[in-house]
Amino acid sequence: MARTFEGKVALITGGSSGIGKATALAFAAEGARVAIAARRAAESEAIVKQITSQGGEAIFVQTDITQAAQVERLVKTTVDKWGRLDCALNNAGIIGTPFVPTPTYSQETWDQVINVNLTGVFLSLKYEIPAMLASGGGAIVNMSSIAGQVGGWGGIAYYASKHGVIGCTKAAALENATKGIRVNAVCPAVIKTDMADQFVPGQEEKFLAAHPIGRFGETREVADAVLFLCSDKASFMTGIAMPVDGGLLAR
Ligand SMILES: NC(=O)c1ccc[n+]([C@@H]2O[C@H](COP(=O)([O-])OP(=O)(O)OC[C@H]3O[C@@H](n4cnc5c(N)ncnc54)[C@H](OP(=O)(O)O)[C@@H]3O)[C@@H](O)[C@H]2O)c1
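Above: query sequence and NAP SMILES. Below: predicted holo structure tokens.
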């Protein structure tokens, strides 16, 4: 049976761990050739090896998502390798300092979080869109969060950046609506990753109580949503910010 992304090329930023890793593996399992972008080489090369050992194709392009020249090189390397770009998950992100109130939140952390989470998405879109137009169209998913839809206590830059990701998503979706490129965002609640390990420990009960479904999410559950939005099954969906949140935002 034909796999959903056979012959397609998918690019994942922040593909070295967590949600990005799960999405890279899911795309490869559905037949896509996968470019993984991140800073950590050993972790990323291990994922490339996992994909190629199962008969798939993947490359790692070491990339700091805040650096325009490196993001340009990432997209160029991918297109030089496989001749096209069809799908992208712009996922690279950091939490910053989660529970620090605004008067004591440092500008240094603000700049870091905005640079990675928001400028990184802008730069990814900037270079991916022309490559997709040259391939005849495509689908992009940007990584927002429930923190892109509601506020919370402390960690102002994270909320600002993830709200900004939804703004980028809507703007890019409208710019490209008639050009064959769909642009959507996903908004996960707590997903079990290294990032969640930075803010959940010690407060499991409080965070669990916020999830009506009664548990945290798995990385595979976000990957499934990303693959759906990148597939032809989502052909009439663009400019949306889709919760993957166990019901959290329904309250
Ligand atoms: N886990 C959750 O509960 C949750 C909920 C909602 C949204 N999210 C979002 O999901 C995304 C992935 O996070 P995760 O939970 O999977 O955590 P994670 O395992 O820590 O993944 C973060 C990824 O971002 C990459 N990254 C960070 N800074 C980078 C930079 N300057 N350049 C390139 N890559 C960079 C990391 O790779 P390197 O360190 O190798 O560069 C890593 O691959 C983030 O955008 C996060 O905000 C997570």
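The chain has a mean pLDDT of 98.
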